[in-house]
């Protein structure tokens, strides 16, 4: 009987400790501002090129360009500001 009582008390302590860790982690994540970075980059595109649209997903930015040649999409790494992929769109 004493072993069962000790096991129940031990499990109760573990449950309380686990819930405390979860609550503290949630509060810490809510209070910490998200990481932001400022990136400055210049796209080497022909004259007459304009940005038709942009879409961000995770750490990538897809930029749709029109004019100055065929329509195209550039994929940029938001951490470094470098172009990691280019795709020309057929007319």
Protein model, in words:
By secondary structure, the chain is α+β, with helices and mostly antiparallel strands. The protein has 2 domains: about 30 residues; about 40 residues. The protein contains 1 helix and 4 strands; from the N terminus they run H-E-E-E-E. A 4-stranded antiparallel beta sheet has the order 1-2-3-4, with no helix packed on it. The protein is rod-shaped and about 85 Å long.
Low-confidence stretches: none
Indicate the multimeric state: single chain
* Beta strands, count: 4
Helix content: 25-40%
Q: Average pLDDT value?
A: 91
Domain count: the total is 2
End-to-end gap: 81 Å
Largest sheet, in brief, is: 4 strands, antiparallel
Q: What structural class do helix, strand and pairing data support?
A: alpha+beta
Shape descriptor reads rod-shaped
Helix segment tally:
1
Round the Cα radius of gyration to an integer and report it. Answer: 26 Å
Topology pattern, helix = H, strand = E: HEEEE
Q: Major sheet: order of its strands?
A: 1-2-3-4
What percentage of amino acids are in beta strands?
25-35%
Notable characteristics:
rod-shaped; 1 helix; 4-stranded antiparallel β-sheet; 2 domains; 91 residues; alpha+beta
Q: Gist?
A:
The protein is an alpha+beta fold and 91 residues long.
Outline the fold blueprint.
Elements lengths: L1 H30 L18 E8 L2 E7 L5 E6 L5 E6 L3
Antiparallel strand pairs: 1-2, 2-3, 3-4
């Amino acid at each position: 009987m004493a072993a069962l009582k000790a096991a129940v008390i031990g499990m109760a302590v573990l449950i309380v400790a686990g819930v405390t860790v979860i609550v503290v982690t949630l509060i810490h994540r809510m209070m910490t501002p998200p990481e932001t970075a400022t990136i400055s980059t210049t796209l080497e595109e022909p004259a007459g090129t304009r940005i038709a649209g942009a879409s961000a997903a995770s750490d990538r930015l897809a930029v749709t360009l029109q004019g100055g040649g065929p329509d195209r999409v550039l994929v940029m790494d938001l951490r470094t500001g470098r172009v990691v992929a280019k795709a020309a769109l057929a007319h």
